[in-house]
Design a protein that fits this description.
This protein has 489 residues and is mainly α. It has 2 domains: 34-214, Heme Oxygenase, Chain A (Up-down Bundle), CATH 1.20.910; 260-472, Heme Oxygenase, Chain A (Up-down Bundle). It contains 19 helices and no strands. The protein is globular.
Length: 489
């Protein structure tokens, strides 16, 4: 039977007292239009799901080996937001008669080629420029089109999902384009007058656009008879690099000459002095995303999506915590780049343990923060210090870590017979990690100098108070103990 023609004439439909029709979702004129279907909605959502997941996975995989701090945290943030978009898309598809969902299938070889070659970009500046100036604007348009073209009443949940994602992508794109332009400006200053790099990027970008054109663009709506291009000449499939990298501001990153936990838990020191160690502990948490990225990459096919969603949230939280430490030092008028920010926790875990052992250490540490001597203690110290920013940050840090402990219980403990067995395994895994404290010094990588007196003296000058003599003399290191103050063999 032929479908009834869509009404094109004006629809005169008075509502009671001229109240908004149809719960405000759209006009009656729009509601009587029937050019939509559930299959069209599902097809577009599945393609967009593939795209958002590729974006999430690619940025997460770049965190560890990306040296620039601002890019590490940007990738952590946007990777998490893309994970939320994946989650919202999966939920909507599951509501539309789609069991099994079939979300793990590649929707088109052209999409796969475009994102494979993008992810394999050898230069970070190319990767960032392609993402924020070329790929994401097309992804944004696809979500906007879905928002505008889906039937606003029959497919209202899809419209809402598309609306929220499109709105969030606007801010992501603005921030990312600013980052891309800054990288290009710096690169241009270093290679003034050299057009070879620009020409090479233009050719590579055109290759990506050709792959998208072969796929009918992001959402598959553009007709195309173009063949899928071959892989970009000379490109190699992307391989995750588990070795953490830091930019030149992170001086002396092997330095383990100060044990902040020993200072923090010593009752003889003043709360305000302890806030400096807490700010240091927060910014040092940058190594947690560097390690957690390895878990997400190596467990990509081993764990269900729900695991990746929750762990991506935790990874972003840890990046936030590092930035809290950065902000804390700025608030105190202290240049954090003058402090050695150690990265050997992520370096040693990524190089010495397998993925389940790394997860075990993460779980053990998170659970160890739950007793009164853990995050609650840090909040109480911050509150007593009189530093409102420290109290604010520790309040939310504590809440985040409670969530992380719950995530660990959901995804890690079920592998064991009991919580105690899971904790014991995590402790054993951490005990296997060699700190290489002496080795790093013998290799000339660090002298493990005590940076605390200089930091503390500067802070006391800024506060207009005299240093506490005992605090100034603090000199405990990590040579014979780890961060939970357990003695090393």
């Amino acid at each position: 039977m032929d479908p009834a023609p869509t009404m094109s004439r004006d629809v005169s439909y008075p509502t009671y007292r001229n109240l908004p029709p149809l719960a405000g979702v759209c006009s009656m004129q729009r509601a009587v239009q029937a050019e939509w279907s559930l299959d069209e909605s599902v097809d577009r959502l599945k393609r967009l799901h593939y795209v958002m997941r590729r974006l999430h996975e690619a940025l997460t995989a770049r965190i560890t080996a990306e040296p620039i701090y601002e890019l590490k945290t940007l990738f952590a943030h946007h990777g998490y937001l893309f994970a939320e978009h994946v989650e919202a898309t999966r939920k909507r598809v599951s509501e539309m008669r789609e069991p099994p969902l079939g979300l793990d299938r590649v929707p088109h070889a052209g999409l796969e080629r475009a994102f494979d070659d993008w992810q394999s970009a050898p230069q970070t500046a190319d990767l960032v420029a392609a993402l924020y100036h070329h790929l994401l604007p097309r992804v944004h348009r696809a979500w906007q089109d879905l928002r505008d073209q889906a039937h606003p009443l029959a497919d209202a949940p899809t419209v809402r999902t598309a609306k929220l994602i499109a709105f969030e992508l606007e801010e992501i794109i603005r921030c990312g384009q600013r980052a891309a332009d800054c990288l290009d400006d710096a690169e241009g200053a270093n290679n003034a007058g050299d057009s070879k790099d620009a020409d090479a990027r233009d050719a590579w970008l055109q290759h990506l656009m050709d792959a998208l054109a072969a796929a009918g663009q992001i959402d598959g709506r553009e007709p195309s008879d173009q063949p899928v291009p071959d892989p970009w000449p000379g490109s190699e499939p992307y391989r995750y690099d588990p070795v953490p990298q830091r930019d030149e501001r992170f001086r002396d990153p092997y330095n383990a000459g100060v044990n902040p936990e020993a200072f923090l838990y010593d009752p003889g020191f003043r709360p305000r002095d302890k806030t400096l160690m807490m700010y240091y502990k927060r910014i040092r948490e940058l190594d947690v995303p560097e390690m957690m990225a390895s878990i997400l990459v190596e467990m990509r096919s081993e764990q269900p999506w729900a695991f990746h969603m929750e762990m991506s949230r935790q990874l972003w939280d840890e990046a936030r915590h590092a930035m809290m430490g950065e902000v804390g030092f700025v608030s105190q008028g202290i240049d954090w780049t003058q402090i050695p920010i150690n990265f050997t926790w992520s370096l040693n875990l990524n190089s010495q343990l397998d993925v389940w052992q790394r997860h075990g250490v993460l779980f053990f540490i998170e659970q160890g923060l739950m007793p009164r001597t853990g995050k609650r203690y840090e909040y109480e110290v911050a509150y007593e210090s009189g530093d409102p920013l420290a109290a604010l940050f520790q309040d939310f840090d504590w809440a985040d870590e409670v969530l992380h402990a719950q995530i660990g219980r959901r995804w890690y403990v079920p592998r064991f017979k009991s919580l105690n067995e899971a904790m014991q395994y995590g402790d054993e895994c951490w005990s296997k990690v060699l700190s290489h404290w002496q080795s790093y010094r013998d290799q000339g990588l660090t002298e493990h100098h005590n940076w605390w007196p200089a930091l503390y003296t500067q802070a006391c000058q800024n506060w207009g108070q005299a240093p506490d003599a005992a605090a100034l003399a603090f000199d405990k290191t990590y040579e014979n103990s780890r961060a939970d103050l357990e003695e090393l063999d």
